[in-house]
Specification:
Strands 3-4-2-5-6-1-7 form a seven-stranded parallel sheet. β5, α5 (125-132) and β6 (141-145) form a beta-alpha-beta unit. The chain is built from seven helices and seven strands. The longest helix is centred in the N-terminal third of the chain and has 15 residues, at 7-21. By secondary structure, it is of the alpha/beta class. It has a single domain, classed as 3-Layer(aba) Sandwich (Rossmann fold), CATH 3.40.50.
Length: 179
């Protein structure tokens, strides 16, 4: 089932776009659990693909690969290859690649015009080093996190974008209230 973005997701995507247009290359989107960050990422990828851009979506664990690919497929993004061992969706020719940090550490990173880092607050040393590599300086890296408070994130990301906050999403009926 294809999800239509909610207004709060559209607003977050617009804030990211403004950040990138202002010259920022490393924005971090803070959005609460349940916000729909993967759905938002699919919309960002769809916009990038409309301009024939190549995208890497990096997850912190292999266990998140299949659910990410499934979520992208539900949003109509089928041009996805998976970088993981003998995964049935492995296809380096696809313009969207989903990979774990661990796999990217051990392989040649494919060329990309945009990189999205899921759970960016985990701040893997490899990702920090990757962002600083000369060949990747011009490529935007968008961090996604519910909790971007890890020490040192300011060294990797140059703009913190705070999406709709939990009380707002509860008040608007998008999240269940606390008990």
């Amino acid at each position: 089932m294809r999800y239509v973005l909610h207004l709060y997701q559209i607003e977050a995507e617009a804030m990211l776009r403004r950040s990138l247009l202002a010259g920022r290359k490393r924005p971090m989107l803070q959005a609460v659990t349940g916000f729909g960050k993967t759905i938002l990422a699919a919309s960002i990828i769809e916009a990038a693909r409309a301009r024939d851009k190549r995208v890497i979506f990096c997850v912190p664990a292999i266990s998140l690969i299949d659910q990410t690919v499934e979520k992208f497929a539900s949003q109509g993004i089928h041009c996805v290859g998976v970088m993981q061992g003998q995964h049935p969706a492995t296809d380096a020719r696809q313009p969207v690649q989903v990979a774990s940090v661990q796999t990217l550490q051990r392989r040649r990173i494919p060329a990309a015009d945009l990189v999205l880092i899921d759970e960016a607050h985990l701040r893997f040393r490899f990702v920090s080093n990757w962002m600083r590599m000369q060949d990747w300086q011009a490529v935007p890296f968008i961090g996604l996190s519910a909790t971007p408070w890890s020490k040192g994130l300011g060294k990797d990301y140059d703009d913190l974008i705070v999406a709709a906050r939990m009380p707002e999403l509860i008040d608007r009926g998008f999240l269940a209230p606390f008990r």
